[in-house]
Design goal:
71 residues; DUF4351 domain-containing protein; DUF4351; mainly alpha
Length: 71
């Protein structure tokens, strides 16, 4: 096993864990602001990339509606 491969193997779970944590926090923020989330929104959040969750997390601060978070 090469050092680079070993690093990938150890970083992947941390990166996935970080994304999962970001997704959970975003869900809580959205629920606090907009109430119960539709299943389609939950699915979209669970399939999102880290970049998407970061952008949406910033959008939630100013978005007047749930749809506006994802624009």
């Amino acid at each position: 096993m090469t050092v680079a491969h070993s690093r990938d193997w150890t970083l992947r779970p941390r990166m996935e864990g970080r994304l999962e944590g970001q997704t959970q926090l975003l869900k809580r923020l959205l629920m606090k602001k907009f109430g119960i989330l539709p299943p389609a929104v939950v699915q979209r959040l669970e399939q999102a990339t880290e970049a998407q969750t970061e952008a949406w997390s910033l959008n939630v601060l100013d978005a007047p509606s749930l749809d506006d978070v994802f624009r």
